[in-house]
Amino acid sequence: MSGALVVMGVSGCGKSTLAKAIAVALGWHFIEGDDCHPASNIAKMRAGIPLCDSDRWPFLNSVAATLRRYVDVGAVASCSALRLSYRDRIRAECCQVRFVLPVVSPDCLKARMASREGHFMPVSLLESQIASLELPTATEQAIYVDGAASTAEQVRQALSALGPNARAKSGTSSLPHRSAGSGAV
């Protein structure tokens, strides 16, 4: 099985951790979505300024292009993809993509973000992200996982939802997985 997955959601939901773990389980390529942001986006977020759509389109195009590059061997990306229009942009460029959403309470998100060191996204932007989040519709066939569960349990939930063709590959935990992106951080 090959294809593309995007682990989506607001900051602090565990996108990168889960995306890496799914990539390892499947033996697929991991893409750190934050690496696809242009430096100007990182600077805005670091300053506590929410991104506008004109900031997001180049980022989303970069995520989609990177996914498309690896879709034949399988790729898992972390990317907020908060709105349907953002997910549609990624799907337009990489039609074989499915989205995975770790569901986490706002209190847990705040606690996680407050405990992170060295990350550019401040807790002050969490409310704007939560307000922007459009939950995937049934027609999107997104996979919801319990974001408060262990990473291993979240991976199990995601792979189970993907079905029998997404069996974890044996021995992949030691495979090197690299991030890919066009932006600089």
From TrEMBL:
Domain of life: Bacteria
Region spans: Disordered: 163-185
Record-listed E.C. numbers: 2.7.1.12
SUPFAM superfamilies per UniProt: P-loop containing nucleoside triphosphate hydrolases
Entries under CDD domains matching the protein: GntK
GO biological process: carbohydrate metabolic process
Reactions listed under catalytic activity: D-gluconate + ATP = 6-phospho-D-gluconate + ADP + H(+)
Cellular-component GO terms for this entry: cytoplasm
Gene Ontology molecular function: any one: gluconokinase activity
Gene3D superfamilies: P-loop containing nucleotide triphosphate hydrolases (3.40.50.300)
Record pathway: Carbohydrate acid metabolism
Alphabetical keyword list: ATP-binding, Kinase, Nucleotide-binding, Transferase
InterPro entries from the UniProt entry: P-loop_NTPase, Therm_gnt_kin
Cross-referenced Pfam families: AAA_33 (PF13671)
Family note: Belongs to the gluconokinase GntK/GntV family.
UniProt-recorded name of the protein: Gluconokinase
